[in-house]
């Protein structure tokens, strides 16, 4: 009683959309409510997140040079870099994870398939949908969200020998080339909760 089944990352291909609906009918002897949770994230946002990721070779902590910098920044001939500031680590230059320089290329086919699945699932009748958007066009973003809900972007400059960290909203092009802001995790989760309340009428 009161238990649910959460299938994360399913379906994986278009055929599994039909299989998932058959599976629902097969196990739905209690008439439990079903819902598709669809997450729409522009490919360029995924690409940028991968390419800017940095890891500590000593403790494997993960940060982002563009989106989640450490409190300590260094600079060499290659530019600015992050210095690990984890409490249990003695620090060191954080580096790009092997393969991250390729961005989404190794997983692009999977992402394109996910996009087709999202479109297919959204067109289905009989199953409620919760659509979560990660990006909002920058020119209207402040009509819908507050600044603290937007993902900040970081850049660096050296002034009188001291490295300054500059924070501003992260602006990135979506799949249609529209300049957008990317939302933080919290407002996306709140949107999901609000929509689930409406779907389940609770």
What is the arithmetic mean of pLDDT? 87
Distance between the termini: 17 Å
- Taken as a percent bin, the fraction of beta residues is 25-35%
Principal-axis shape equals elongated
Task: Specify the helix fraction band.
Answer: 25-40%
- Over all CA atoms, what is the radius of gyration? 21 Å
**Uncertain runs with pLDDT below 50, 5 residues or more?**
none
- Secondary-structure class: alpha+beta
Task: Report the order of strands and helices.
Answer: HEHEEEEHEEEEEEH
Count of DSSP-assigned helices: 4
Query: Reading side by side through the largest sheet, how are the strands ordered?
Result: 7-11-10
Largest sheet: 3 strands, antiparallel
Query: What's the total number of strands?
Result: 11
Can you describe this structure?
- By secondary structure, the protein is an alpha+beta fold.
- It has a domain of 133 residues.
- Helix content is 27%, strand content 26%.
- The protein contains 4 helices and 11 strands; from the N terminus they run αβαββββαββββββα.
- The strands form 5 sheets. It has a 3-stranded antiparallel beta sheet with strand order 7-11-10, with no helix packed on it. Strands 1-6 form a two-stranded parallel ribbon.
- The longest helix is centred in the middle third of the chain and has 16 residues.
- It is elongated and about 65 Å long.
- The chain starts with 13 loop residues before the first helix and ends with a helix.
